[in-house]
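Sequence in, structure out. Go.
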Amino acid sequence: MPDEPLNLGFAESATRFESASQNARVWTEQWVHESLFCPNCGAADIKRYPNNQPAADFYCDFCREDFELKSSKARFGPRVTDGAFATMCARISSPNNPNLMLLSYNLVTFGVTDLFFVPKQFFVRDIIQERPPLAANARRAGWIGCNILLGRVPESGKVYFVRGGEVSPKDEVLKKWRSTLFLRRQSVAARGWLIEVMKCVEAIGARAFTLEDVYAHESGLAALYPNNRNVRPKIRQQLQVLRDAGYLDFIGRGRYRLGVAA
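Output:
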């Protein structure tokens, strides 16, 4: 039996708050709980954690993946405000770091306009930006927050469920999610290099490319990793890892092609 079409409209809750943001939080959380399948395993069983659960908001009752929801009336830009900088840095290396769910909504049409996930394997130190400490007269004087730099996440690290009001087919969502799970087998430091090379490959803008095309990004990688004096060998090493993971196919004579799953 084919899957039921995804309803992007909110079911208005009987609970009402004076605050519009509180109402939106209730509507978006209810929609996620009732409408989404798990992008990791496909199970239609996304459950809510009790309020005040550290870090995560939802979990899959089948595969136990955790998800943190952030919602906004506007489309998300290149950065997203998050919590304490030190806490986020500690979370990056934790196996319990949740996947990020970013939902945009429209209260005129009363529904979801965009929804995408950033899988947890894309959370590396380079996408966490430290914010200035709060001023001395602030209630939490000295507290240091952070931003998540979405602009530094490759497109392969953004798994869309809904884009511009268009719903992605379930099999495409699952395929894209699974195409980068190999990154979870890498250390945080190793993931950083792999993700940067994946971004270089995306910047080429073609499914088939050459080693020289990737070398064209050598200066940018050297600036990111100034202590590495062997950038070209490092690039070749990362391409080999991506090939072994099935993300890339090696055609021969220094030529590559994005794999079927990428």
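Check: The longest helix spans residues 188-204. The two ends are 28 Å apart (CA to CA).
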